[in-house]
Amino acid sequence: MNRKAPLVNAVYYPSWRVYKDIPPSSLQLHKISTIYYAFAIPQENGSLGFLDEYADAQIPVDGELGCLNALARVKRDNPHLKTVLSIGGSTVDWEHPRTPVEGRHYTALLQACRVALPSPQFLLTTALPCDPSVLRMLDLRTVGSLADHINLMCYDLTGPWSAVAGHHAPLFAATEEGMSSQQGLGLLLAHVPPHRVVLGIPAYARVFPGATAEGDAYEQEDGGNEDDEDDADKEEVEIDYRDVPPEWMAADVLRIDQGRAAAWAVVPRPGKKGQPGYARNTSFVSMDVPATVRIKARFVRAAGLGGLFYWTGAGDAVRHKDSLVAAGFDALHGT
User: Fold this and answer.
1) How is 196-211 classified by DSSP, letter by letter?
2) Is the residue at 173 inside a domain?
3) pLDDT tens digits for range 284-293
4) Number of domains present in the structure of the chain
5) Which of 155, 252, 290, 310 could bridge 327 with an S-S bond, Cβ 3.0-4.6 Å?
């Protein structure tokens, strides 16, 4: 298929990952087309401010002061890279309009940004969820005409807010009623040229303690007091892909549904101090792995989409053979 631009293989770099000794230079730079720096925060006077001034501008990292300068150095050393400043984050999150009025405000914001950042000199992108009820609040045709890329967040379809355990990033559903990325993607593609749509990949796993299969009830942690002495023993319900224990990826543990592009594992639960055990001693873990990313990349090529992006590049595995970003890049380019 002829394309106006090469396929995107983009990652988000969140500045707070520098505190885990994951600098911008540690990303799979030769497999990345675009780095989104998260986040800049709008100020009341119309300027942009730091999310974390120390991480953004002061911490020594990659021979520079601050992650922004480190990112600029990465770009100088890797001329093929595009860098984009992501504005927002959960505290000023406009990507989930709840009413038609909020949807119109969202479109007006994009229009103002496009005027200030004319094409083709500047790249203007926006992230949107897969939830059709949110997408219907937007004039998608106008959004698609303004944004160079729409980063469709094809993850978090289930999580700690869900009634039962499930896959959090399946491309397709097992039944017509099941949740999948395809629901939001189909709605979006009815209004937006496919090459403007970039499919999102989660570089993290969601863990459902006490569940043994999709659809199971699971044990949800109480909100509790942050100073509670048991907090240190709470189970992780979200784990960066790079931190997933290797035993969860073993051939006799990991399961892959090729038709849905979904991977999962049922794993033993860690014990808690002072407790002899659990009523149910396994957890259901949903995540993407290189095999599912390759399936999604082949779908992107077949559907004429713009490429893939990853939340986050800093959550990806260190080794090339385990890397989601590398798997996506290679499959997008037919290798």
Assistant:
1) GEEEEEESEEEEEET-
2) yes
3) 999 999 999 9
4) 1
5) 290
